[in-house]
Amino acid sequence: MSTLYNQQALTSALTTALIGHRVEMHPQVGSTNDLVREAARLGEPEGLVIVADEQVAGRGRLGRVWTAPPGCCVLCSVLLRPRISPQHAFYLTIAAALAIYRVIKVLSTQHSALSTPTIKWPNDVLLEGRKVSGVLCESEFAGRDWAFTVVGFGINANLRPDELGDLRETATSLSSEFGREIDRTRLLASVLSELESLYFMLQGGQLGAVHAEWARALETIGKRITVNDFGGAVTGKALRVDPDGALVVRLDGGGERRIIAGDVAFSDR
Ligand code: BT5
């Protein structure tokens, strides 16, 4: 039986104080991140949540496409107006990935055959080594001040492997791994609750604790990787993440490189 996934059901399932004080749910949008950004520019207070059943222009980072067939995934954006220093903008990505990771980890404990989820630096949540969720945070600044961040995330909830098309090798869904339909309302309400508690930790200055939990969940550390940095591809061993979220790689050719943004692939060489 399909469970209800609409504005009223989500509003009643929410246990948050700030995130979701206003919820909009749309059958079809371009990108939920765009709608939240427009509202933010018009002065919308933080906490707005916009959800769509389908996106026709869903985005990943660096202009990549986020693919999700209609009616089966979680596609959501949240407006936040952090009071911490703009130099910590990356912590919103950390918090969102961690919120999703926490919820999927709890769900996966009911399935002893599955390994626990992991986070692939910086923003992918993986289940059984495949991407089940991605995070896209977009921030705007006013001078030195942090005006707002749109925290967007997609979670593959009820997707059959054949619906993943070309992504089949690298992506998965919760329903494929758990072998049952996922209640998207409860899933999203739980993620928003975790996101709020991590956001409150950040606002309260507990950046170190949030960073430490994220770092522990990263599967990337200790592995041999190739990462497409802005300056080209580099290969080496992922050593650690710095406090600003940068990935530190010991290069095969010697020396260390701090990677600020890039795509990691595991390398056997
Ligand atoms: C992300 O980008 O992973 C961020 C995805 C954020 C999507 C949400 S949905 C709500 C909100 N509104 C938006 O418009 N976006 C946000 P990135 O790390 O760049 O990963 C993108 C790559 O992931 C693509 O190039 C594909 O290889 C892969 N991909 C695309 N769709 C996928 C899916 N459904 N599941 C797994 N992988 C996917």
Strand order of the largest sheet: 1-2-3-7-6-5-4
Shape: globular
Name the bound molecules.
biotinyl-5-AMP
N- to C-terminal distance: 48 Å
Mean pLDDT: 93
Radius of gyration equals: 18 Å
How helical, in percent, are the residues?
Answer: 25-40%
Q: What is the tally of beta strands? A: 12
> Would you tell me the structural class of the helices and strands?
alpha+beta
* Largest sheet: number of strands, sense, barrel closure: 7 strands, mixed
- Total helix count? 6
Segments where pLDDT lies below 50 for 5+ residues? none
Order of helices and strands: HEHEEHEEEEHHHEEEEE
Strand content: 25-35%
How would you explain this protein's 3D organization?
The chain has 269 residues and is an alpha+beta fold. It contains six helices and twelve strands. The model has no long low-confidence stretch (mean pLDDT 93). Bound molecules: biotinyl-5-AMP. Biotinyl-5-AMP (BT5) binds next to helix 2, strand 3, strand 6 and strand 7.
Tell me the layout of helices and strands.
Elements lengths: L6 H7 L8 E5 L5 H10 L6 E5 L21 E7 L9 H19 L9 E3 L3 E4 L2 E13 L2 E11 L18 H5 L5 H20 L3 H11 L6 E6 L2 E10 L5 E5 L4 E4 L3 E4 L3
Parallel strand pairs: 1-2
Antiparallel strand pairs: 2-3, 3-7, 4-5, 5-6, 6-7, 8-9, 8-12, 9-10, 10-11
Bound molecules: biotinyl-5-AMP (BT5).
